[in-house]
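Ops channel
N.P.: pipeline sanity check, posting one input/output pair.
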């Protein structure tokens, strides 16, 4: 089964880019493995609308993926809530 995941990249210059992709939720090991490998890269690559985008991680402040995949690497803390001041 596939599920739609949205991704929001916050860049260091204050701009943002959002897009979505469909992932296979039945292959949970692959998703968790990719997330773990994602964190070790110096450049992130995404194929979006038939174009290949390269993002140096030094230009990225944060990345949000929603909804969070069901299976995550062991180094991910679960159940957090954002506190608004």
């Amino acid at each position: 089964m596939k599920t739609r995941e949205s991704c929001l990249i916050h860049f260091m210059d204050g701009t943002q880019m959002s897009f979505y992709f469909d992932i296979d939720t039945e292959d949970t090991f692959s998703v968790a493995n990719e997330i773990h490998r994602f964190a070790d890269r110096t450049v992130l690559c995404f194929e979006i609308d038939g174009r290949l985008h390269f993002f140096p991680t030094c230009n990225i402040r944060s990345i949000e993926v929603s909804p969070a995949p069901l299976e995550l690497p062991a180094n991910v803390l679960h159940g957090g809530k954002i506190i608004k001041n």
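N.P.: looks fine end to end. Strands lie at 2-11, 16-24, 43-48, 51-56, 60-66.
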